[in-house]
Specification:
about 5% strand; DNA binding; CenT-Element_Derived; single chain; about 80 residues; DDE-1 domain-containing protein; mainly alpha
Length: about 80
């Protein structure tokens, strides 16, 4: 069983993805009640990640090389795993 919120980004045919997987959509406007992670952990993670991005932006502007802030998949993954610590 896969329980997902009612976000519009989920494909409508998600129910037919695999015969061994039952997909259940949460009712609208109940995500924060039924998913405790929405009540703080995600917000804290986003705040930490944003602080790291701004700190790196400040470092990039302080460098004299004229190089801008590098952003890529590796950088994002590194920042997100450091946010879990």
């Amino acid at each position: 069983m896969l329980i997902v919120d009612n976000a519009p980004g989920h494909p409508a045919h998600l129910d037919d993805f695999h015969p061994n997987v039952k997909v259940v959509f949460l009712p609208p406007n109940t995500t924060s009640i039924l998913q405790p992670m929405d009540q703080g952990a995600i917000a804290n993670f986003k705040a930490y990640y944003l602080r790291r991005i701004f700190a790196e932006a400040v470092k990039a502007t302080d460098r004299e090389s004229g190089k801008t802030l590098p952003r890529g998949t590796h950088d994002s993954r590194r920042n997100s795993t450091e946010g879990e610590r």
